[in-house]
Amino acid sequence: MTLCSMILYYVRRFKRGFVLVFILYSVMVIRKLCCDFSIEETGLSTKTYSNREKWITVNTTNGTPANVVELLAHCPDVSPFLVGQLEFVDINATSLNLNLSIYYGGEVELGGFWRPKYCNARKKVAFLIPFRNRWEQLNTFLNHMHPIFQKQQLDYRIFVIEQTGKDKFNKGAIYNIGFKETLKYDDYDCHVFHDVDLLCETDTNYYGCPNSPMHLSVGIDKFNYTLPYKGLIGGIQLFSKEHYLKINGYSNQFWGWGGEDDNLFRRIRMKGLKLIRPSIDVARYKMNQNNHFRSDGWSQANHRLIYNRRTRPVVDGLTTIDKLHFTIETRESLLYTLVSIDLRQRKGRRT
Ligand code: BGC
C-alpha cells in the first residue's frame, strides 16, 4: 500500500475525527490572530501613549514595559520613568553589574546597545567614552549610567574609545576616530562625548541632543557645582552629526592633558554655532575620584595651541585623521562596544 492510499484509507475511516481536528485547529489559529491585536487580560496595569497617527496600549509591570500590542508610536516627549534626583550613586562599585546584560537576565544587548521595547525612541544616541586603563571607573560608569539612559528612553549604544600603546593620551584624536567608527553602526541623531569619571546625579538631565551643541556637565561637585570659567566645556558635550562635521570635530594636535576642550569651544564659535547649557540645578555630576590618575601632566604646549592657527577647523580635525598613525580594532563586549586605537605620536611633529 502506498503512502497516499494509506492516508486516503484512514481519512475515509475516521472522517468525523479529521473534521473535528480541522475545526479545532482553525479555532486555535483564529484565536491567535485575534490576541495579537488585542490587549491580553494579564492583570497588569496598562498605559496608553499617542502619536499623531496612532494610539497604542502597552502592558506594564511596575512601570516596566512588558508587551507591545500594536505598531510602535513615538515615546513621549518626557519619559514617564524619570524620578529626578537620584538617591544613590554607588561610586565604590568596582565590578561590572552583569545583571544589566541580556545574557544575565537584563536588557542591554551585546555591545552596550538598548532601545525601548514599546515605543520608538525620540533620539538615537552614540555615547563615546574616551578611555585608558581606568577599569574601575568604567565599571562604575556603566553600572550607574546604563539605567539612566534607559529611563530616558534613548535608543543608544555605548562606545568605549580606548587609546592603547604608550604614547601620550590624545582625547581629540581618539574622539574623531571613534566618531567615524560609530557611523558604521547607525545613523545617530546625537553624539555624546562623555568623560568616564562623571556620574549624573539626576535622571532628568536629558542626553538627547537639542538643536545646538550643548555642554552638559555644568555643575560638578569637584567645582562646588559652579562653572569655573565661561569657556569651559570639558567633561560632556552633545553634538548632532551635522554640527560635529561642521566644526570638523576636535583638533588632533593636543597630546597630553588639557586644552583640547578649550580649543573645541573656539571651533564652535568660529563656525557660528551657539553653545547652550542646561540649568545647573539639573545638570549635576559627581566626579569619580577613585583611581583617578593622570598619566600625562598638565601640558604647557597644549595651552599654547588653544588659539593656534593650526588647530582651526579648516586645518585639522575629522578631515585629517588619515594623517595620524594608528591601528584600530573594534569588538563588542557585554555592556559596551570597545574601540581600541593604537595611536602613535610622530616624534618632533604635532599631527
Ligand atoms: C584645561 C581644560 C580642562 C579645564 C578643567 C583647563 O585648564 O585646559 O582642558 O577641562 O582646565 O579641568
Number of strands: 14
Bound molecules: beta-D-glucopyranose
Terminal Cα span: 84 Å
Mean pLDDT: 84
* The level-1 CATH class of the largest domain: Alpha Beta
- The CATH superfamily label of the largest domain reads Spore Coat Polysaccharide Biosynthesis Protein SpsA, Chain A
Low-confidence regions: 32-69
* Whole-angstrom Rg: 26 Å
SSE string? HHEEEEEHEHEEEEEHHEHEE
Task: Return the CATH topology of the largest domain.
Answer: Spore Coat Polysaccharide Biosynthesis Protein SpsA, Chain A
* Main sheet summary: 8 strands, mixed
Helix content: 10-25%
> What characteristic shape results from the CA principal axes?
elongated
CATH architecture of the largest domain: Alpha-Beta Complex
> Total helix count?
7
Number of domains: 2
Question: How is this structure best summarized?
Answer:
The protein has helices spanning 3-13, 15-36, 135-151, 171-182, 241-246, 260-270, 300-305, and strands at residues 45-50, 55-61, 64-68, 113-114, 124-131, 155-164, 190-194, 198-200, 214-215, 219-220, 236-239, 284-287, 325-332, 337-344. With 351 residues, it is of the alpha/beta class. Strands 4, 5, 6, 7, 9, 11, 13 and 14 form an 8-stranded mixed β-sheet that branches. A 3-stranded antiparallel β-sheet has the order 1-2-3, with no helix packed on it. It has a 3-stranded mixed β-sheet with strand order 8-12-10.
